[in-house]
Design goal:
The chain is 81% helix and 0% strand. With 220 residues, it is mainly alpha-helical. It is globular. It binds ligand VIB. Residues 44, 47-48, 51, 74, 78, 82, 135-136, 139, 171, 174, 208, 211 line the site of ligand VIB. Homotetramer.
Length: 220
């Protein structure tokens, strides 16, 4: 079994809960309250700033030029590309730089990024990839499942851009490389090493679910 198959089978119930979550279902049918989505976009922007640093540490930990490139492409993509979805919505909500700077990180947000940064500082390149995989890949699965359940979600005047953005090839192409690299780097891992990788992936998958819950409740 490939490492990524093992990781995904260990978290199948958590991943199934993403698309069943009321926040994600609200994006799917277009009924999500705008104030909840605005809260989410602001928290997610703050999240992505920290998440980019996880890749930046990955660059320093990479043992080959290929892995170094994978990490550095993501840093570039995050600082130039991913945040465009967020910038678009922040424009729609007319969020000023002052409002963004004055937004405190909610505790689940802070915990999630702190955990990933700890893995990045303490562990190796494959463990860093396992930590970011839930984030990078779950949005592809979520957006594609939304489109399967409701193909018209892509045309929604407000939430359509979010769905199209995350189901689009800009994100999904990067995930193929991410999954392949993690499998390649861990093909000779021992059972203990694989179990440790699974623990990291389970923790991050739980954090992803907690992030949806945090956004739904607009937690402080
Ligand atoms: C909490 C949270 N989790 C995942 C993503 C999705 N995401 C963030 S960066 C990226 C590109 C690949 O690393 C993707 C798909 C998000 N925006 N917020």
């Amino acid at each position: 079994m490939k490492t990524t198959e093992r990781l995904l089978s260990a978290t199948a119930d958590i991943w199934a809960a993403y698309n069943a979550h009321p926040f994600v279902m609200g994006i799917q049918d277009g009924t999500l309250a705008r104030d909840k989505f605005k809260y989410y976009i602001l928290q997610d922007y703050l999240y992505l700033e920290e998440y980019a640093k996880v890749f930046a540490i990955g660059i320093a930990k990479a043992k080959s030029l290929d892995t170094m490139r994978l990490f550095s492409r993501q840093v570039n993509f995050l600082t130039e590309g991913e945040m465009n979805i967020h910038r678009g919505y922040m424009g729609a909500f007319t969020v000023s730089q002052e409002e963004l700077s004055a937004t405190p990180r909610a505790l689940d947000n802070l915990s999630y990024t702190s955990y990933m940064l700890r893995v990045a500082y303490e562990e190796g390149e494959a463990e860093i990839l396992a930590a970011i995989l839930s984030c990078a890949y779950s949005y592809e699965v979520i957006a594609k499942t939304i489109l399967k359940n409701n193909p018209r979600a892509a045309e929604h005047p407000f939430y359509g851009n979010w769905v199209k953005g995350y189901a689009g090839s800009d994100f999904c192409d990067g995930n193929v490389v991410l999954l392949d690299t993690l499998n390649f780097l861990t093909c000779n891992y021992t059972e203990d090493q694989l179990q440790h990788l699974t623990d990291i992936f389970v923790a991050c998958s739980r954090y992803e679910l907690a992030f949806w819950e945090m956004a739904w409740n607009m937690s402080k």
